Amino acid sequence: MSELLRIQNLSKTFGRREVLRDFNLAIESGRVYGLLGRNGEGKTTLARILMGVIPADGGSVLYRSRPIAFGDSSYKREFGYVPEDPFFYEDMTVRGLLAFNARFYPKWDRKRAASDLERFTLDPKSRIRTLSRGMKLKLGLAVALAAAPEFLILDDPTSGLDVPTRQDFLRDVIRELAASGTTVLFATHLVHELERIVERLLVLRGGRLILDEDFDKVKAEHQASLEDIFVRLVAGA
Amino acid sequence: MFRALYFKEWREKAFLFFFELGILVLLLGQFVFREKTDIREWLVYAVLLLFFPFAALILGAAGFEAEYRQGAWAYLFSRPVRKPMIWLAKYSALLSMLAALWLVFLAAWLALPEFRGLVGDPRLLLGFRIEPGFPFWSLWQSVFLLTVAFSLSLLHEKQFNILFLSLLAGLGLTAAAWVALMSKAGWRLAWITPSKALPAFLISQTLMALAFAAASILTLVRSDFSQSRKQMLGFIRWLAPFLVLAVAGTGAWVRWTPVQGDRFLWFVTTTGGEPHYMTERGVFKYSAQASRIQWLTKATHLNIYRASASGGKIAFTAFDIKDRNDIVEELWVEDANGGRRRIIGRGPRENEWPQEAPPIADLLLSPDGTRLAILSANAYGKQRPRRRPPLWIVNTDGTGLENLPDDPALFEDLSDRYYFHLVAWAREGNAVLLSKRSLRRPWTFSLWLYDLGDRTARIVLDNAVIASWLSPVSPRGDRLAIKYQRPFDAPWGLALLDLKTMETTDIAAMTGEVGQALFQISWDPKGDRLAYVVRRALSGGQNVFVLAVYSLLDNRTVAEKMMTRSESSALLFQPSWASEGAKLLVLDREANGLKIFDEGLREIDQVAFPRWLDIPGGLYAVGDQVLIEDEKADSLWRVDLETRRWKKLY
After folding, report:
1. CA B502, B507, B508 angle in degrees (round to 5)?
2. Which candidate in B78, B220, B227, B230 is best for mutational testing of the A interface (most A CBs within 10 A)?
3. Contact residues on chain A for B71, CB-CB shorter than 8 A
């Protein structure tokens, strides 16, 4: 498998709080990565830096061996992003948001967008402000999937979903993506969610990765559930 | 991508746009249905000074409102679109909304002549008269305010704060630029002329708008939107140097860019055979002895400038401007060689000085340069009995200021309004000649003599005025060239008035229609001959224009030369005596050169104009040196009749 993304010595500070410190990570294409960390450990910050929403204070990111600068936009055509807080343009309709996004992505799949709306029971005529948090998350996912991304960043997307949708999402959507060769970075603090889908486990603490291993290997080594492994890693440090 | 972003903005702000459009239509509708002129005038003020600035501010402040209110900025910035394009699409959408509002205004401006008249006419903002026509100043100001508000909308989520801050920044900077540039505040800005102020104001707004736009683009591209404090500091860090550059750019533009009407070169008088020119930098004369220009005063804001017939003294008034409310008119006298300059009056603040508005309307130096006649107001009407008499006499050393009483004979009809000008000293310094014109009967004009001994005035000639505003008095100071109509609807005649005896000698009369008064007189250096141009009617209704020389020694016209049939060419001839009276020069624009005649008006030579002389005019000869103004460039050139060498003097 080829290297898709390499993050080197990434750092980010908010005021006096250092959220990311000499953060290093290599992501190979076609794999599902699970990024675990407690609240405020920097998962969202990392996602936002990768999506060019906020600048890093230091370090570099290479996508397919090419450096990405803050302000670059072309690489984002191959990136999908479902943010933790599903804030869209509230006055738009579901169909309007899809049409708005369709102009940005060359590989936009209209059929996929339509079928995902049906699958997630989203009415195209609904105004976004009338949707619940869970529905908004589904809409965000539909947009991200329709863009047919090479690399999908899911920033804690399941926390607002009802149980059946969450099951559906984890079981079907992520598996579909993995099967199609899409690289997924799934950031969450809900540890048990990753158990069924993750191939490689990343644990973030104090602004650095304290674990970057294949999930099977970690499980074999620790002989415990992912939740226990996570608690042990975080508490033991 | 641009289209998607552009139309998203339109959809998002459609309500705001239609709300503003509704208000504009309501205001314009009020204009159509209201009949009272003052209410209509206020509606125009309301649209230009209130509606458009606030409409622009509200539109601009809404720029990034959706991203803040709905928390969508992270979502938008994660899309594959460059941030400058986001900025440009948003700004273009808002600008097109503003443009649509202005198009509605333009439609009203084109369709309603009364609206057009009021828009172009009112004196707006600090009494500065806006150029008539479409109010581009207001259009530009609204674009400026939109830009400022839009740039600031990037920084804060509170709409009201943005609006308020934009209002302070936009109108504050506007007001500062306006006050600084328009009011001529302080000596440092005194060189700004009103004709330059409006373009300077627009330039300053453009540069400031660019400063705000550049700072906001850089902030958008480089700042961290999750940290508002950092973002704000980033914006300020970018804005500060851009604003400094904007102010410096405005200053440089104002300082270095000539604006029409700002630079000028006027031939104001001659004395001792040397021409004097007034410029925006002061007054200089051409010194025959030194063969170069010599600055007589570097005073700016000059008003009236006079020289004595003997060539010994000059006198002028100049405004000393501290600010709009502290403008003092000063009266200066100095030797014509530039020495012994002294101020002899500062009005109208000083009690004993003529207190009228304008304080000094006209000046006249006595032929020997020892006394000065002053007219403190040249227009007199019903209020005359309540005001001080307008005629004053003062010695050129500043002593002996005296207000001379009016002679009631000067004002036959107290309900009329009269305009006076000082024409010449007469009777060897014992009388002053005045020209008078009635407002009620503007075609009537007369010459009056005010006797300084018995303080009485009497009419000398009816329907007569001086033949030239530059140098009507002969170099000896004893004759005045006048033009007259007898009766007032007859063709013009040219005559000489003896300033000692007040007797007149007819020289020439134009024939044909009444029309233009065309006597371009020029005294020879000794005052023995007078050259002039006169129109003669030929049979068949055609005219010919003749150059002629009248000799005071022979009491007759001694030479004539038919020059042209074109009146417009004849108006430019401006004859001037050269080589101590041995040659007469005429500027001939048709031939694009100077024509040189001998005393008998035989053409003996020509000097072609060089191609760098755009619009030749203002001809004056000093010996063998000929000075010619370039009326387009406001520059002064000299050509030597012997060597034919050209040199730029100013």
Report:
1. 135
2. B78
3. 85, 87
Tell how many helices (H) and how many strands (E) occur in chain A: 8, 10
Q: Do B79 and A101 touch (CB under 8 A)?
A: yes
Distance (Å) from the alpha carbon of B206 to chain A's nearest alpha carbon = 27
| Non-local CB neighbours of B161 within 8 Å, separated by 6+ positions | none
Residue of A nearest to B227 (CA): A14
By Cβ distance, the residue of A71, A74, A87 closest to B74 is A87
User: What is the arrangement of strands in the sheet containing B616-622, beginning at the earlier edge strand?
Assistant: B616-622, B625-630, B635-640, B646-648
Q: B82 to chain A: which residues are within 8 Å by CB? A: 71, 73
Residue A108 near chain B (CB below 8 Å) = no
pTM more than 0.90 = no
Tokens in use for B24? 């504009």
Helix (H, G, I), strand (E, B) or coil at B536: strand
B83-86's contacts with Cβ under 8 Å and 24+ in sequence apart are B83/A71, B83/A73, B83/B217, B83/B220, B83/B221, B84/B217, B84/B220, B84/B221, B85/B1, B85/B2, B85/B5, B86/B5, B86/B220
Nearest to B497 by CA among B473, B532, B529: B473
Distance from CA of A87 to the nearest CA of B (A): 5
SS (H, E, C) B170-235: HHHHHHHHHHHHHCCCCHHHCCCCHHHHHHHHHHHHHHHHHHHHHHHHHHHHHCCCCCHHHHHHHH
Q: Please count the other Cβ atoms lying within 10 Å of the Cβ belonging to residue B580.
A: 13
Cα separation, B483 vs B479, in Å, equals: 13
Question: Given an 8 Å threshold on Cβ–Cβ distance, is B80 in contact with A104?
Answer: yes
Instruction: State ipTM.
Output: 0.88
Tokens for B302? 């000059």
Mean pLDDT for chain A overall: 83
Dihedral through CA B592, CA B593, CA B594, CA B595, nearest 10? -80
State the nearest Cα–Cα gap between B225 and chain A, in angstroms: 7
Tell me the shortest Cα–Cα distance from A108 to chain B, in angstroms: 13
pLDDT over 60 at B261, yes or no: no
Distance in angstroms (rounded) separating the CA atoms of residues B434 and B133? 40
Using DSSP bridges, classify how beta strands B362-365 and B371-375 pair: parallel, antiparallel or unpaired: antiparallel
Interface of A with B in 48-107 (CB under 8 A): 48, 51-55, 70-71, 73-77, 79, 81, 83, 85, 87-92, 96, 100-101, 103-105
pLDDT in tens, A7-47: 999 898 888 888 888 888 898 888 889 888 887 788 888 88
Select from B181, B203, B198 the least CA-distant residue to B190: B181
Q: Tokens 């003020």 sit at which residue? A: B45
Locate B270 and state its tokens: 């001659």
Q: What is the mean pLDDT of chain B?
A: 81
Looking up tokens 């609204």, which residue turns up? B142
Distance between CA atoms of A48 and A55, rounded to whole angstroms?
8
- Residue B287, Ramachandran bin (φ over 0: left; ψ between -120 and 50: alpha; else beta): beta
Q: Of B69-78, B333-342, B352-361, give the lowest mean pLDDT range.
A: B352-361
Q: Determine the pLDDT at residue A237.
A: 47
Confidence at A211, pLDDT banded by 50, 70, 90: confident
Average pLDDT over every residue of A100-113: 88
Three-state SS for B37-93 is HHHHHHHHHHHHHHHHHHHHHHHHHCCCHHHHHCCCHHHHHCCCCCHHHHHHHHHHH
Chain A residues near residue B75 by CB distance under 8 angstroms = 83, 87-88
- The beta-carbon neighbor of A53 closest among B77, B80, B222 is B77
Distances (CA, A) of A149 to A9, A64, A135, B155: 26, 14, 21, 32
| Interchain proximity A76–B79, CB inside 8 Å | yes
